[in-house]
Amino acid sequence: MKKLLTLLILFGNITFLSAQERAYGDGEHFKFRVHYGFVTAGYATLKVKNSTLNGKDVFHVRGFGETVGVSKWFFKVEDDYQSYIDKEKNIPYRFIRKIDEGGYTKDVQIDFNHNSKKATVNDKKHNETTVFSFPEETQDMISAFYYLRNKVDTENLKEGDVVEINMFFDKENNKFRLKFLGKEILDTNFGRVRTLIFRPYVQSGRVFKEKESLTVWISDDKNKIPLLIQAELAVGSLKASLTEFKGLQHSFKILAK
Predict the structure, then answer these.
(1) pTM to 2 decimals?
(2) Considering only CA atoms, which of 168, 47, 51 is closest in space to residue 113?
(3) At a CB cut-off of 8 Å and minimum separation 6, what does 104 contact?
(4) What distance in Å separates the CA atoms of residue 118 and residue 80, rounded to the nearest whole number?
(5) Predicted confidence (pLDDT) at residue 115 exceeds the cutoff of 70
(6) Measured between alpha carbons, how far is 104 from 127 in angstroms, rounded to an integer?
(7) How far apart are the first and last CA of the chain?
(8) What is the CATH number of domain 4-246?
(9) With 34 labelled, which of 78, 144, 188, 228 sits at a CA distance of 20 to 30 A?
(10) CA 48, CA 222: separation in Å to the nearest integer?
């Protein structure tokens, strides 16, 4: 299943938290089952731990995804994404992308200088280094997930509202945009949970059927956990369901049956 972790991270970027209160911290861990109906295609995880980078206190976040079982025999995927995020400013200092998708490989490290607004891209596979400019408060694919959880106020969102952030990915500056669809009580692996529903705008043509082919359900609480992700792909409907979590900063509320 080719874009396993890339899809999951894009979906994960829909999680928000009201400003001034941190949604995550050291030890937070999510595990997702990625599946076509009852068939499991793979698993993906997101883990947070305290670290330092160039003398700065940061959160080191690692996202890892891989195909399993029959899917692995047909198309082996191992995707490793990492980000080093400033604890106070919520901006990335380093982004690592090391992937193997059916023999298609990348090994890239991006270092962000937010004073000069320059990103140094080190393509280790081709032994090439290039420098690009980026706008204010630019995020990488991983850091965007955590930035939005801390910065965007979901309490005042209205149905149809669109949120937009700057993202640097694959040597390009992009706008990541998503629309708030409303609220719903969702049956999950953990019980019935109040959720917020979002739909990101994604590039169509190569992976997705349409511009608006993704839907995400996140917990309507201070954690803003991605509970269910559904994507209409060119090869069928794909879902990612949260199966495990630990290290949450706030209580996780389950509704009585």
Answers:
(1) 0.87
(2) 168
(3) none
(4) 24
(5) yes
(6) 17
(7) 35
(8) 2.40.360
(9) 144
(10) 17
Q: Which sequence spans correspond to the domains of the chain? A: 4-246
Query: Tokens in use for 250?
Result: 């706030």
Structure tokens belonging to residue 73: 């025999």
pLDDT over threshold 80, residue 158: yes
The C-alpha atoms of residue 98 and residue 108 are separated, in whole angstroms, by 6
Q: For residues 7 and 232, is the Cβ–Cβ distance under 8 A?
A: no
Centre a 10 Å sphere on the Cβ of residue 147 and count the other Cβ atoms it contains: 23
Identify the pLDDT of residue 206: 46
Span 24-50, pLDDT tens digits? 999 999 999 999 888 999 999 999 999
Residues paired with residue 22 on neighbouring β-strands, in sequence order: none
3-state secondary structure the chain: CCCHHHHHHHHHCCCCCCCCCCCCCCCCEEEEEEEECCEEEEEEEEEEEEEEECCEEEEEEEEEEEECHHHHHHCCEEEEEEEEEECCCCCEEEEEEEEEECCEEEEEEEEEECCCCEEEEEECCCCEEEEEECCCCCECHHHHHHHHHHHCCCCCCCCCCEEEEEEEECCEEEEEEEEEEEEEEEEECCEEEEEEEEEEECCECCCECCCCCEEEEEECCCCCCEEEEEEEECCEEEEEEEEEEECCCCCCCCECC
In whole angstroms, how large is the CA radius of gyration of the chain?
A: 18
Cβ atoms < 10 Å from Cβ of 46: 25
